[in-house]
Every structure is written in C-alpha cells, then in structure tokens.
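quick one, 305 residues, struct below
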Amino acid sequence: MKVAIFGSGAVGGYFGGRLAAAGEDVTFLARGAHLAALQQGGLHIESPAGALHLPKVSATDRPQAVGPVDVVLFTVKLYDADAAAATLTPLIGPDTVVITLQNGVEAVDMVAKHVGKDHVAGAAAYIVIVIDKPGHLRHTAAHQLVFGEPDGTRSPRLVAFEEACTRAGFHAKTSTGIETDLWVKFVRLSTWSGMTAVTRCPMGVIRDDKDLFAMMMTAIDEAIAVGRARGVRFPENLVDETLKLIHRFPAESKSSMFEDLERGRPLELPWLSGAVVRLGREVGVPAPTHQFITTVLSPFVHGAR
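---
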C-alpha cells in the first residue's frame, strides 16, 4: 500500500514509521529541522511497544515528488490544516482517501472543500507521543486509530488500510459511526487539553483536586450538551467510560496543547474549547467553563509573545 504521511510530526511519524517497518510504501512529508533529520539519519522511535530505528526513510517537502497514493494520513495541526489541504492535489488519485487525524470535529469539512468529500475520511488517533528532537520520537502510551467513511460504510479502501495497520502492529478499526467517534474524542480532548493548559498542571493534579475535578466534569457535561443539541447520538455510558479513562491516566500526563503552551508554540484552542463555545452558540447552548478556558488562553493562541 502506498501511503503519504502529510505533516510527519509525532503522531504521523509514529504511525508512518510502524507502517514503513512492516513493508508498506511510506513517504513522509515534513519540513524544517525534522525533515532534515529524517533525510539524514532516518526515524527513531522509543516506545513501550518496541523501539524502532529506520535508518533510511523516504522524506520530502514536495507532494509533487510523491504523486498519487492510496492513503494520505493528514496529520498537520489544525491551525495549518486549511492551507496544507490546499496543497494535497498531487497526492490524489481516483480512489485516494485522505484520513484526517486532527483534533476537533471540523477537519473533514476543511479538507473536503479542497479535494472533494469522496476523498476524505474522518479519524481519531489515541496516542501519547512527543518529538524529543528532530527525527526522534518518544511514545509513552496507547497507539490506536479509529477511522471511517462519512456515510458509515466499510469501504474496501479503509478495510485494506485497517489490515495494513494490523500488520504494522498497532490497533486500528474501521468505524461505521465516525461522527460519534469524533465527538466522543472531542468531548474528552477539548476538556483535558483546556484544563491542563489553563491550570498549567498535569492530569494527576486535576484529578486529585476536588474543585478542579468538579470543573473538569462540568466542562465535559457542557461539551456533551453541545453535541446532543447538534444531533450527535452519544453512547449511554460515555461519562462512566470517560471517568475510567481519567483514573487510568498517568499522573504526569499532559495534553499536547499544554506541551505546545510550554514550548511557546501556537495552540489549537479555537478548534477545541473555542469550538465548544462557537458550536454551542450556533444551537443556543452555553458553555461557560469552556468560555473561561478560551478567554484565559487566548493571548497564547499564536504562540509566545
């Protein structure tokens, strides 16, 4: 299977690296120091699932040099997604599928307006991983992809990709209800990213502090209320399962948005807590906790000043 990893940071680098190690034809599209490191020294992954070093990988910053592929894993940050999607055309063949791995619930529409809705599938990635330094990734927990066609069909192209992921040794699932899957992750991630970033605290502190825990649960309830008002059918056990996840998190866990805040990088805030507020306003559902998070973090949206 021919796969392009568009935006080969931590998430794309991990899944692309595993696929390449399993024999798939993978090209990494990256930029800057990370691209240079991939071209010169390959890809290194430290992981509880097994360390991986690929001394030679195919890496470029030019989609034109790659040509049409079977699957594009679209893994750029949300603030780059619209501009990046406009450059996808050279990778698109008659049956190419662009699998959007962005946080939030708006990436499918953002990409579809550039490549056509028939070429886009939504996805949720569950993984804890960071770039230690260019070309080096540190994976600490989870490695799962859930992806699905917008119409809920188990298309041959996604089933084939699911099989490739299984061969590569990580968990993958072709979903028949990807909108719900995306919203379930959105409810959790918008809250966790906002809470850890606004408090500058890892999950253990928030989980163990009575008042912060209550604030977190209120934020979860707000996001669920917005989704329901927009017609999303959530699992009945969503809150219970979310609580189980919260208590399983390592105490030192930080969201990627908190990591970005610490490093002075731009934030995905407008598509996380900001989106809860914006999407809620459209259907008349207030989200005051997410509004507080959005307001307090807004000075840092474009990175350190």
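The mean pLDDT is 96.
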